[in-house]
């Protein structure tokens, strides 16, 4: 089952959200994400969180789950709910932007839940990001901007092909070397790594 989660960070483009919803079976708003959903004219099946941003009206389309636990944030609550519903493929909008500490926390949550789903992706107006398996390959349009980021602080033994700036047995480390703003020079890219947690950012082709 496919699920879309909407958080209250920077919102996606309306058409971007609606397209994702057309291919999903469940739409979850994480607390303040319900306000963004309302502004875009879409109705969540579930609203979940500590509800410090969203006030219940009684006219909700779906279920409202108040979870006051302060040891987990609203995205964690939404992902835990999706896991209990046996969802397999998760797209999260609004997990980035606005407060930087919230963005960093949500990246930690991405790592925490990554192994519990077949796929778990964050999307925004500019890019899609997700954690890479040890061997990854994908076809992309030529000259697509691709960035690699060592989420665990250091990622070792990285090999890439199909990118302008190739790595062979390379290492990416926060504060030492990063892999931002690379470009695809072949339609198929391949990325291998052996140690660490490696994020990929694939930029959308958009001028908006």
Automatic annotation (TrEMBL):
One GO-annotated biological process of the protein: thiamine metabolic process
EC id: 2.7.6.2
SMART domains (UniProt xref): TPK_B1_binding (SM00983)
Domain Thiamin pyrophosphokinase thiamin-binding span(s) in chain numbering: 133-199
Alphabetically ordered keywords of this record: ATP-binding, Kinase, Nucleotide-binding, Transferase
InterPro entries given in the database record: Thi_PPkinase, Thiamin_PyroPKinase_B1-bd, TPK, TPK_B1-bd_sf, TPK_catalytic, TPK_catalytic_sf
A Pfam family the protein falls into: TPK_catalytic
Keyword Signal: no
Signal peptide start and end residues: none
Single GO term (MF): kinase activity
Broad class of enzyme this protein falls into: transferase
Keyword Protein biosynthesis appears in the UniProt entry: no
Database matches in PANTHER family: THIAMINE PYROPHOSPHOKINASE
Protein name, UniProt field: Thiamine diphosphokinase
């Amino acid at each position: 089952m496919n699920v879309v989660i909407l958080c209250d960070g920077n919102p996606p483009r309306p058409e971007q959200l609606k397209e994702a919803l057309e291919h999903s079976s469940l739409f979850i708003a994480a607390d303040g994400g319900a306000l963004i959903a309302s502004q875009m004219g879409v109705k969540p099946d579930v609203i979940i969180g500590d509800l410090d941003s969203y006030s219940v009206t009684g006219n909700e389309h779906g279920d409202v789950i108040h979870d006051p636990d302060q040891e987990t944030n609203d995205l964690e609550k939404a992902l835990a709910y999706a896991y209990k519903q046996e969802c397999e493929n998760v797209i999260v909008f609004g997990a980035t932007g606005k407060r930087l500490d919230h963005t960093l926390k949500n990246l930690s949550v991405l790592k925490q839940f990554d192994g519990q789903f077949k796929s778990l992706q964050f999307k925004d107006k500019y890019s899609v990001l997700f954690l890479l398996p040890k061997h990854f390959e994908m076809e992309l349009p030529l000259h697509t901007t691709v960035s690699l980021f060592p989420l665990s602080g250091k990622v070792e033994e990285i090999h890439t092909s199909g990118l302008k700036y190739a790595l062979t047995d390379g290492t990416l480390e926060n504060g030492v070397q990063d892999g931002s703003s690379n470009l695809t020079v072949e339609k198929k890219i391949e990325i291998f790594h052996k140690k660490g947690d490696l994020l990929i950012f694939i930029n959308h082709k958009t001028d908006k």
